[in-house]
Amino acid sequence: MPKMKSTIISVIRLEPAKPQEGDWICTAHGRAACTRDLVAVAELQTKDAVQTYRVCEPWLSENGDAAAYLAEHGYDNRP
Ligand SMILES: [Zn+2]
Predict the structure, then answer these.
(1) 68 and 38 in contact (C-beta within 8 Å)?
(2) Rounded distance from Cα 27 to ligand 1 centre (Å)
(3) Which of 6, 53, 55, 66 could pair with 27 in a Cys bridge, judged by C-beta atoms 3.0 to 4.6 Å apart?
(4) Which residues of the chain have pLDDT under 50?
């Protein structure tokens, strides 16, 4: 199956960071794989929809698209 292509359209910083709780989990890594606090909400434009990603700090640097987006646009900067 081809990898779904998506484009980041905004990254909103959560201050302070919020612990994961209930349905409020790290979308990027999943409940089982990640217990870190969430530091940002990213909106990703896919082919058909905008997806909301709640993410921890490491994702912002390990995900190439996120790192590139932040380097260019910074936080809280919708197009
Ligand atoms: Zn995570």
Answers:
(1) no
(2) 7
(3) 53
(4) 1
